[in-house]
Amino acid sequence: MSPSHYAEDGYALWLRYPRLAPDSTSPGADECPRFTIILATPTGQETPTLALAQAELETALRHLYGQPPLVRLEAVDTDSLPYALRANDTKAREGFLIAPFTTSPQNNTSSSPVLRIAAASDTGILYGVFALLRQLQLSDQPFSNIAITSVPSIAHRLLNHWDNLDGFVERGYAGNSLWRWEELPDELDPRYRDYARAMASLGLNGTVLNNVNADARILTTEYLLKVAALADLFRAYGLRVYLSARFSAPIEIGELHTGDPLATEVAAWWRAKAAEIYALIPDFGGFLVKANSEGQPGPHDYGRSHAEGANMLAEALAPHGGIVIWRAFVYSPDNKTDRVKQAYNEFLPLDGNFAPNVVLQIKNGPLDFMPREPFSPLFGAMRQTPLAAELQITQEYLGQQHQVAFLAPMWKEFLTSETYTQGPGSTVAKVIDGTLNGHPLSLISGVANTGSDRNWTGHPLAQANWYAYGRLAWDHTLTSGKIAHEWAQLTFRNARSFDPETVETIEKLLLGSRETVVNYSMPLGLHHIMATAHHYGPGPWVDNLHRDDWNPTYYHRADEQGLGFDRTATGSNALSQYAPELQTLWGNPDTCPPEFLLWFHHLPWDYRLSTGHTLWDKLCLSYQQGVEEAQAMLSTWEKLAGKVDTERFTDVRQRLARQVTDAITWRDSCLLYFQTFSKRPFPAGVEPPPHSLSYYQSLRPESTPGNP
Ligand code: GCW
Question: Which of 169, 171, 177 to mutate to test the pocket of ligand 1 (most atoms within 8 A of CB)?
Answer without folding.
Answer: 171
